[in-house]
Amino acid sequence: MKRIRKYIVTGSLIVLPIVISVFLFLWLFKFLDGILGRYINNYLMNNYGYAIPGLGIILAFLLIFFVGFSVTHLVNKKVLLFFENWFIRFPVIKQIYPAAKQIVYFLFTDPKENFSKTVLVEFPRKGIYAIGFVTNNSCSHFNEKSGRELVNIFLPTAPSPLSGYLIFVPKDEIITVDITVEDALRMIISGGVLNPS
To answer: Rounded to two decimals, what is the model's pTM?
Structure first.
């Protein structure tokens, strides 16, 4: 029975992540394809008798590319900021948009661009350590008021590193660890199950 249980657990650890990944991929594919592709494929099916799977994703990619190109080369950043400020004035949008923007920004930007290095800091009290990321040197105003050289540290929460705490820690109290940002994020997402090699 112990061997059978071991085989079942081992097989589950291999098969279930694959099944879940494939299921989520297919669900995401159908969802994204249905946003734009549904209307065009309905037109193609009614008039020509066929549909093109993935057409909605291709159109969405082209739309995103066009918007990215326009914002980079054609649209002034002040215009974009004005539109964003106008957009978040709507009652429900102002609660959803900032969180959605934060999630997308986190997913599509390189962690190395946001976090310079991985550190340990004593949090929430002395003797207990939390893993964090250096985001920047603190502003001179904070340094003057505290009388110390402070560093901006982002402390992510597990298992979702999208939220967390921004704390200002004296530079001489930071413990630098030889762990990459990617390994630290894996550790946080796994709740400490995956230790850095």
So the answer is: 0.52
Segments making up each domain of the chain, as ranges:
1-75, 77-108, 111-189
Span 145-153, average pLDDT: 93
Under DSSP, is residue 52 helix (H, G, I), strand (E, B) or coil?
A: coil
Token readout for 53 is 């799977």
CATH architecture group of domain 111-189: Roll (2.30)
**Measuring CA to CA, which residue among 98, 80, 102 is closest to residue 89?**
98
Give how far Cα 149 sits from Cα of 101, 117, 153, 172, Å: 31, 17, 13, 8
Q: Retrieve residue 63's tokens.
A: 């739309």
Q: Give the torsion through C-alpha atoms of 139, 144, 145, 147, to 10 deg.
A: 120
